[in-house]
Amino acid sequence: AKIYHRAAYCYFTREMGVEIRERVRMMHALRTAFEDERLFVVYQPQIDMRNGKPFGAEALLRWRTEDGDLISPDKFIPIAEYSGLIVSIGEWVLRTACYELDKILKSGIKEFRISVNVSQAQFTHPLFLQVIERVLADTKIPPECLELEITESMAMADLEVLTLTLGKIKSKGVRISIDDFGTGFSSLSHLQKLNVDKLKIDRAFINEITSGTNEGSITKMIIQLAQSLHLEVIAEGVENLEQANYLLQFGCYQAQGFLYAKPQNKVDFHAWLHDHQ
Ligand code: C2E
Ligand code: CA
Ligand code: CA
Ligand code: CA
After folding, report:
1. What is 153-165 written as a DSSP string?
2. pLDDT tens digits in sequence order for the chain, 277 residues long
3. pTM
4. How many angstroms separate the alpha carbon of residue 117 from the centre of ligand 2?
5. Which ligand approaches the C-alpha of residue 180 most closely?
């Protein structure tokens, strides 16, 4: 029994060591990739399902390794957050997306919006407001064309700090959307106090929406909640017409998903946009 115990102990620590080493390796690789400009932003159109026209896009980060492989943001964003790198990477994404929006608006497309994901570490950073001001001043985009996506779990953190920061951002004219809505546990009174503009229904619900399970009722409830609070609502991960029709039937008109378009690099995205006017 003693030998077994020791063996188990050794196995456990070695596994832990491997995991930490892997994380540190990824962290260095990510920093180098950022410095070597191997990170890039792709854009996924957002559609008004009533007329099929795009009205905006979400900026999504990509990492291409030196070998040419793509690493999923679900893998590297947590490392960027853990290491603090997300503050400078996030600022770069914001700036890149706003420059892209400026190009779109200058190319004759009117009233287009760009949504940018913002991590908690960015949002609570003391210089975040200045970053936004500087990016708006440099790119000269209309502030109401910029939308920041914060997650519902972030919206649950320190309410006082959050309300203060949100208020300052909103006073600049920038819009706020709550991402992954339905997966966290924000209370209704909380939501009302936060004064956000939009709810984004998580893909997990849309996935199961027509299967007759709870996801459908949760989606309906979120749509109704948005309507009664006078918020916009968008569905993420719409992949088929059944889902689109379900959403339309219950009054959700905005969608983002593979049914309409996948995230695209900026060149393809510009071409796509001009083809879909
Ligand atoms: P998210 O913010 O919830 O973004 C939506 C994800 O759903 C994207 O994955 C998008 O490609 C995917 N998606 C959209 N429509 C469909 C669909 O119809 N079917 C399926 N299967 N997937 C769909 P992606 O690009 O891999 O990003 C994953 C997550 O990484 C994002 O989830 C977001 O949390 C994070 N992320 C991406 N870029 C950034 C960034 O610049 N900053 C921060 N902080 N997080 C980011
Ligand atoms: Ca998002
Ligand atoms: Ca989501
Ligand atoms: Ca997310």
Report:
1. TGGGS-HHHHHHH
2. 445 555 555 555 666 777 888 889 999 999 999 999 999 999 999 999 999 999 999 999 999 999 999 999 999 999 999 999 999 999 999 999 999 999 999 999 989 999 999 999 999 899 999 999 999 999 999 999 999 999 887 766 677 888 889 999 999 999 999 999 988 767 777 788 888 999 999 999 999 888 777 778 889 999 999 999 999 999 999 999 999 999 999 999 999 999 999 999 999 999 999 999 9
3. 0.93
4. 5
5. 3
d(CA 159, CA 167): 12
The answer for 62, left when phi > 0, alpha when psi is -120 to 50, beta otherwise, is beta
CA 55 / ligand 3 centre spacing (Å): 19
- At 254, the amino acid letter reads Q
Instruction: Assess whether the C-beta atom of 70 lies below 6 angstroms from ligand 1.
Output: no
Q: What angle do CA 270, 247, 210 make, to 5 degrees?
A: 115
